[in-house]
């Protein structure tokens, strides 16, 4: 995912910039702060890509299909998540709540129909962590987001503004 400049990432980004360029701390900080964050549409496309990877992993795992799938699912609850699901969850956790909320609204717009502004007004707001869980549990998330993004563009929604 394109790096969003957030306080947790700032030190890491500055160190990486200093190691790469040999700049002073102040120069590296100035450069990192001047970087433009990715557009919301770019963020949505990255989440779609990660959701497709998660779906592919799920479909390819034979434990998810057949008569023993439920028992095997219960056995795997304590296992670490597959890499695709972990990457999707990590990417969503790194997003500011504002963008995460917009992704949730686009997801429901793509799944259920309806315009994003109406959904944004009526959809219950949860904590950041709960919203990540809600989004990652939806499948096919990639299709819901693609349809929601297409609907928002068709309706002339400014994706960079709050819904």
Give your account of this protein's structure.
It is a single chain. The chain is an all-alpha fold and 163 residues long. It is 69% helix and 0% strand. The protein has nine helices and no strands. Helix 1 (7-21) crosses helix 2 and helix 6 runs parallel beside helix 8 (128-136). The radius of gyration is 18 Å and the shape is globular.
Features:
single chain, 163 residues, mainly alpha, globular, disordered N terminus
In brief, what are we looking at here?
The protein has about 160 residues and is mainly alpha-helical. Helix content is about 70%, strand content about 0%.
Mean pLDDT: 87
C-alpha geometry: globular
Low-confidence stretches: 1-5
Structural class: mainly alpha
Order of helices and strands: HHHHHHHHH
Beta content comes to under 5%
CA gyration radius, whole angstroms: 18 Å
Give the tally of structural domains.
Answer: 2
Task: Let me know the number of strands.
Answer: 0
Outline the secondary-structure elements:
Blueprint (H helix, E strand, L loop, with lengths): L6 H15 L3 H10 L5 H21 L8 H8 L6 H12 L2 H16 L3 H7 L5 H9 L4 H14 L9
């Amino acid at each position: 995912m394109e790096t969003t400049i957030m306080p947790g990432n700032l030190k890491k980004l500055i160190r990486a910039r200093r190691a790469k360029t040999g700049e002073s701390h102040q120069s590296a900080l100035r450069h990192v702060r001047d970087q433009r964050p990715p557009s919301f549409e770019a963020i949505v496309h990255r989440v779609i890509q990660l959701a497709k990877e998660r779906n592919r992993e799920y479909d390819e795992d034979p434990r998810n299909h057949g008569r023993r799938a439920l028992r095997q699912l219960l056995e795997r609850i304590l296992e670490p998540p597959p890499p695709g699901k972990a990457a999707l969850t990590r990417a969503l956790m790194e997003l500011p709540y504002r963008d995460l909320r917009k992704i949730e609204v686009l997801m429901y717009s793509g799944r259920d129909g309806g315009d994003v502004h109406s959904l944004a007004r009526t959809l219950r707001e949860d904590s950041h962590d709960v919203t990540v869980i809600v989004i990652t549990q939806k499948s096919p998330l990639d299709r819901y987001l693609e349809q929601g993004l297409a609907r928002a563009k068709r309706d002339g929604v400014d994706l960079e503004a709050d819904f």
